[in-house]
Design goal:
This protein is mainly alpha-helical. It has helices at about 1-20, 25-35, 50-55, 65-85, 90-100, 100-105, 115-135, 135-155, 155-165, 175-195, 200-210, 215-230, 235-245, 250-270, 285-290, 300-315, 325-330, 340-350, 360-370, 395, and strands at about 355, 375, 400-405, 410-415, 425-430. The radius of gyration is 23 Å and the shape is globular. The termini are far apart.
């Protein structure tokens, strides 16, 4: 049975490789691809792990699938690590449940920071379990290393660490815990120094500069319902019920329970004044499933039916990425189709160097034209382009072709695949970075 399950994961890898090669990059994927072209210890929006993973496969011909390949592998390995954390007789259930979690299921298809965070959480859980059972050198060094990697993946990883310590305060009495802490700090220090050199801009953006919203019961209800929905569609209520109801049988389960419940409460409170994004809690996939496997309810026929009914639509939905948006009438798919042709159209109409207004358009044009296109960020939020110096062409050339959606500029309208009326402003004189632009 285990061999069949392992073969199934390999089959999923091949399916995902085919799917990932049949749709274009999203805006953020193209943006993170640029991370991989200019690797650093940190970036404005995120830590560097997403760029590192993309870079690992840069020896392959540049394509959508080569950019996504590392994330496809990480998803399969995450599912495999999950199998090692649950009883053998529940491994099939745990894997089906893993792919019934919409975000966990789709994250392997996209080159986004969510998959590294999910993978590092799985690795963290595996090392935490070993560390609580053994205090050998491998466990100590492994824990310290994976804590740093968790934070290098996405800052949300701090919640995994914080609620573990809250659940297990006795860890502070273990001498080897301070060695774990030392290893983690030393390995993460390069990123801390990068943040210091850049005025802790990433932390300022995420904690202070994100727009706030008025209190809304509707938003709180949406957040709560979303967390249940993301825990396996139809079986989501059962998953959370088991996690909340069942008592932790050991320190490992206690830590996982604190991570799940604590994270839910943390973002619930955050949602009182700010909008939430569903992917923020993707790392709960592993602890939720491990704890859910405690229940004998998964042996019941009606629960098995619900599990399959939850798994099938989520798994089959990935094939929608490959379809023409105009045929299936799903607007969200416009972000993944037609951009290569659009970029070529822009290139043909622009005799001068191209300058885009937003990081999304600059990233897409950079990838599909295979040359640097800078973002001016006029009226747009800050991003990594504020740190990257524009190509010298913008200074050497007296004119550029400016791709923008701003009304104050007149130019030829070239609609983008996602329906925005973008303009090509010929003969635009870019101000030097830092100058005021009307």
């Amino acid at each position: 049975m285990t061999k069949i399950l392992n073969f199934s994961l390999i089959l999923v890898i091949f399916i995902h490789v085919w799917v990932a090669s049949n749709f274009e990059l999203s805006h953020d994927e193209a943006y993170y691809w640029l991370y991989s072209q200019r690797l650093d210890w940190g970036f404005f929006d995120h830590p560097p792990m997403v760029g590192i993973i993309i870079k690992l496969f840069s020896f392959l011909p540049r394509s959508e699938v080569s950019i996504r390949l590392g994330f496809i592998f990480l998803q399969a390995i995450s599912a495999y690590l999950l199998m090692q954390l649950v009883p053998k007789n529940r491994q099939w259930v745990s894997v089906l449940l893993f792919f019934a979690f919409p975000l966990a299921s789709f994250s392997g298809l996209l080159a986004l920071p969510d998959m590294p965070l999910l993978f590092m959480t799985a690795l963290y859980c595996a090392f935490l379990k070993r560390y609580l059972e053994k205090n050998d050198v491998f466990s100590i060094l492994g824990m310290g290393t994976v804590i740093s990697l968790l934070l290098y993946s996405k800052y949300h990883g701090i919640l995994v660490i914080f609620f573990t310590l809250l659940a297990l305060p006795q860890l502070f009495k273990r001498k080897d815990f301070y060695l774990v802490t030392l290893v983690a700090i030393v390995l993460f220090m390069p990123h801390v120094l990068w943040q210091y050199d850049h005025g802790f801009s990433t932390l300022k953006y995420h904690f202070f500069e994100r727009p706030k919203s008025d209190f809304s019961f509707v938003r709180l209800a949406e957040y709560s319902a979303t967390q249940v929905f993301l825990a396996g569609l139809l079986v989501g209520p059962l998953v959370w019920w088991v996690v909340i109801k069942n008592k932790a049988l050991n320190d490992f389960q206690r830590a996982l329970k604190f991570i799940c419940v604590g994270t839910f409460i943390f973002f619930f409170v955050s949602t009182l004044s700010k909008k939430f994004e569903a992917n923020w809690t993707i790392f709960l996939t592993i602890p939720l499933i491990v704890l859910a496997m405690q229940s004998n309810a998964w042996e019941k026929k009606w629960v098995k039916i619900l599990l399959v009914a939850s798994f099938l639509p989520v798994f089959l939905a990935r094939f929608l990425f490959t379809l023409d948006p105009s045929v299936v009438k799903i607007k969200r798919l416009n972000e993944f189709h037609g951009w290569k042709k659009w970029a070529q159209t822009v290139d043909e109409k622009c005799p001068e160097p191209i300058l885009a207004n937003t990081y999304q358009m600059a990233s897409k044009l950079s990838f599909y034209l295979d040359r640097p296109v800078h973002a001016l960020n006029l009226g747009s939020r800050k991003n990594q382009f504020d740190y990257w110096e524009p190509s010298s062409a913008y200074y050497l050339s007296s004119m550029v072709c400016y791709v923008t959606d701003k009304r104050q500029f007149d130019g030829e309208i070239v609609p983008s695949p996602d329906g925005k009326s973008l303009k090509l402003v010929q003969g635009f004189k870019p101000a030097k970075m830092g100058d005021n632009i009307p």
